[in-house]
Amino acid sequence: MKVEEAPNPLAEGLHDYRVADPAVMVIFGATGDLSGRKLLPALYNLARQRSLPAGFAVVGAAMDDVTDEAFRKHASEKIHEFSRTQPIDSRVLDAFLSAVFYVKVEFSRQQDFRVLVQKLQELDNARHIPGNRIFYCATPPPTYQLIAQQLQAAGLHTGSGFHRIVVEKPFGSDLASARELTQTLQKVFPEDSVYRIDHYLGKETVQNVLAFRFANSIFEPVWNANLIDSVQITVAEDIGIEQRGAYYERAGALRDIVQNHGLQLVTLTAMEPPLAFEANAVRDEKVKVLRSIRPLEGDEIERSTVRAQYTKGWVVGEQVPGYREEHDVAPDSHTETFAALRLYIDNWRWAGVPFYIRAGKRLPKRVTEIRVQFKRPPHLTFGREAMQEVDPNAITLRIQPEEGISLKFGAKVPSAGLRIRSVTMDFQYMTSFLVDAPEAYERLLLDCMIGDPTLFTRADEVEAAWRLIDPIEESWRNDMPPLGSYPAGAWGSSEAAALLQADGREWHRP
Amino acid sequence: MSTTLKSEPELVWRGDDVKMNDVLEALSKVRYEFARAEAGDSEHAHPRNCVMTLVAIAAGETEERRAHRTCRLIGTQHPAQAIVIREDAGQRGKRVDAWITTDVHRPAMACAIECEVVTLHVPGAVADHVDAIVDPLLVSGVPTYLWWMGTPPFGRHELMRALRVCDALVFDSARFEEPYHAFQGLARLTTVAHRRLGLADLQWSRLRAWRESIAQFFTPADRRAFLHGISEVGIDYAGRGRGNRIATAFILGWMASALGWKLQRAVAGVGGVVVAHYVGGGRIIEVQLRSVPKDHLASGEVAAVRIGGTWQGSTFRLSVLRDPDRPPGGDEAIYRTRHPSGGDDEAGVELAERRAEWHRDVLHENLDSLHHTATGDQPGESRPKHPVVFTRERRSRDTTQVFLTMIEIGDTAPLRHVQQIEPADEAALLLDLLATGTHDAVFNRSLLSAFELMRTL
User: Fold this and answer.
1) Can you list the alpha helix ranges (DSSP code H) found in A128-199?
2) Residue from B42, B109, B217 to probe the interface with A (highest A Cβ count within 10 Å)
3) For residue B338, is pLDDT > 50?
């Protein structure tokens, strides 16, 4: 093994020691909302945790004509406003800001990229950075292609050190556009240098699904079709579309939530144990799940999917308007704000087990959970009467809020007779680890700097997900099944309830 | 989640001259009543949540107060049961007085949890049998940490008995009463303690920030090879005498054991100076330990680490300075010679002085011509002015802890990197141990290597 490839012996035994090599992070769209709300505060918090290496620098790149000082002032204001940790440590902030710079870049101007090249070379020399670059596109997806091409033209995609590009979801709006995006990026950067960020995967509790399954030996033997009756995945939001009417009109619940968050949760629940918690091992197993999901086609789409739109109603004690009355929404809009699907995974482990997914806006509360419902005992030892108040066993993995895990099982009611009642055994993060989890962006930015893409979405994963969603979208455009409705504050439409009733089941109330 | 504590915990039970069974019975009753009160009318009681038992051995009132405070702070982050045992040295007989206090924490989105602290005042004869006292109180299935707040009685039976019921011994080598001898006892304990026993030194945990800062420098792939080119290590520490060199010995032991250096010789001189030679990879590594006056540091604390060397013709130097903007000790006002372009802290001064030295050389070489250019006087007609500016610095104190890392590679200008170190009180350090575990092979090997150096001096 070469010297530089050997592990650093001085880092041995340093728990949670995750420090990247010195690099420059160029944030395109640095003066925009994502940069101000998420990226700059996350970088500040990484500095606070001493996770940024000496020499690390940030270069803001955007169309605004501002100086380094003005951009630092802007960054400081955003960090003060949006940082997870408060109060702001002025010494850490000053040290962080001293490594923040700004270059005015209009994405269409090659000359601007040449100025950027010059700035990066200066920083390399002054800060002992061996050419390492991270280009973060905090810009709308249509700009990704232009940015990648300009980076290539300026020679910023190659040279000594690593060169990574980070793009935000959505990764296309269908299979064709996702492929186009992939091809565009891969013309400039190899796939292992493309980091598709979906901040959802950076959440501690999402990662804990894997820890729960693969760090414990007692669950894996029962995690299959022999004992599991069904799986329900709920991604519910109580809010409406807020100011995103124009975007949501094009996306809808299926593209906005189910295609990414919903299917991510399916893959984490259903995947086989990876060889290691290592990028390709984990992502290979996730892709296998997506490829094993039985595609919905033809009439099956009508039978196994539900779409609906909220009408006016009451949510969390407040009266709210219907979707068609929202800002930037067409009065005759056919965009779904609620989607429910029944999927089957055709592999040995999950054959015959339905995975029900529902996601929507203006549902009664904000909750994301995975509920694994077990089969009833094969024989009622205690008789039907004693067991009448007993539900089948269930494990609920709550992603948000009240992150935790609960196991439902039957226990004898203390009394003279023999009656069994369901009780829950709860694990709550908040009562075992009474500490704030890091923000998802902190985790993901550091992963990107270190070069660990485990929690980033790979191209084939994106495409496999769109391959499942595209036929459904197409059928829905043809009004099959018809668009239902639900009053804001309900758990979706009556058709969603009927979807499970037809199978002799019902939705769990989170 | 709020981590603030009420000023005083709630005293829920007290018993004088009690048996341990009385304490157990009281503890069960406290827990039952809390569960019943929290359950409400129709809910099931939430199960107790407990991640460890912490047994603190306090030698007096001050340590007892520290133990209480720390146990309560730990409870704000992890539900735990704590037992504080204070030996009343003057007390004869077998009288045990006991208290149970509780803190209830109510996270915003989770059920309430109760953390109990059981305090026992025991006479010396009973204190010699800690295992018999705490065993019935231990929570099943979770680790037990024995935190000896002063100097553990290394080599004595009462310690070995106590360790039988514990998963880890926690101590702070910075608080050892006779540091040198206690350190020897600690090193011997590693060879005789039972295999599953973990050893956790709070001082070692405090050195983590140093280890991280040093490791960070060598982490980039293009600097990994520098590890094979280290030729000198300098460590500054506060205080004098061999007892104050434990932390420095730990850092050195850590580096030596990680990099395969073997100690050749070590000599201690006057003024806390130690010079040692290690051999690694066929090279001699010269080490200098130096006592420096630093008023704000406790004796034994590390003030600076400097590592230098050469690899394939390129020189490198890493300097990590703690609290560089604080003045060194001494009552006299501080005057420094600074180059005008210097920084505003100790490291800046160091850099400025280096630059000034270089400028002096340049100026000296060109003294006459420069003077002629500046004044119009013929060379030799008048004396040039001194090129260095004297400034007076008087810096204010503060309590924050800052690491300044300076990196110099080749001929490029030094790179400065400032890091803020979170204050690490005993509760924070213990919580860190809880997260990382106490079976730390790096600590064990660093301890042995450090002991080898200490023994030589």
Assistant:
1) 144-153, 175-188
2) B109
3) no
